[in-house]
Fold:
Amino acid sequence: MKPDLRPPSPCLRLTSDLLQLAEWPRSFYRRNTVQVARALIGTWIAHRHHDIWYGARIVETEAYLGTADPAAHSRGGRRTARVAPMYLDGGHLYVFLVYGMHYCANVVTRGPGIPEAVLLRAAEGPPGTPARLLSGPGRLCAHLGITTALSGIDLLAGEDLRLLRDHSVRPALASTPRIGVDYAGEAKHWPLRFFDRNSPAVSGSSRLSSRVKTILNPD
DNA sequence: GACCAGATGTACT
DNA sequence: GTACATCTGGTCT
Structure:
């Protein structure tokens, strides 16, 4: 049974100037998943609720590389009702419930039948938003009002969820292994987590840890 | 920083 | 039926 949509936090209401930003085209999402995960840092995620737009700037992502990635829900070609949205065309949304309590939002990449995706781990709200409000995938969904009711929607179909490109800020891109995938054997070491080193919203203290590799030439 | 409880859908036997 | 999960918040050291 699908849960109801939940209202976003009022402090995430977007100003009209941000809503002028252009959406990413389909071709953006169909690219290599690592490229998309990196390029989504700095992108705004916008959610319309009762005709009002709320949103935040993405500052942390993780790439999940499909059937050959032991950390991905689609590992080994798994194709259950829950993960079905991962098999859609790039530019769709995949949302799942984890630990019985928390929702996690992913952006589907590549083409139809190739189940890869980018997990949205953290974001920064508009100016004045508490720094840690969206720090973590569960918090991000909770405060943006994202539930599995939105799993499978097309971000480019003019629906209530959109991703808006913003070139006004240049992120200080860095990478580490992914969080919470200790079960994934060798893949738990793959450096597929990306974040803006300058953002206070990035989860934990890992932002400054020695495991962090700064990416000098983003994209 | 480490450890732990919490709540329940999902995958698999 | 049963074990586990792309997490979070609280407590203790």
Observations:
- The mean pLDDT of chain A is 93.
- Strands of chain A lie at 44-49, 52-64, 93-98, 102-109, 116-124, 161-164, 173-176, 193-196, 213-214.
- Residues 87 and 115 of chain A are 5 Å apart (CA to CA).
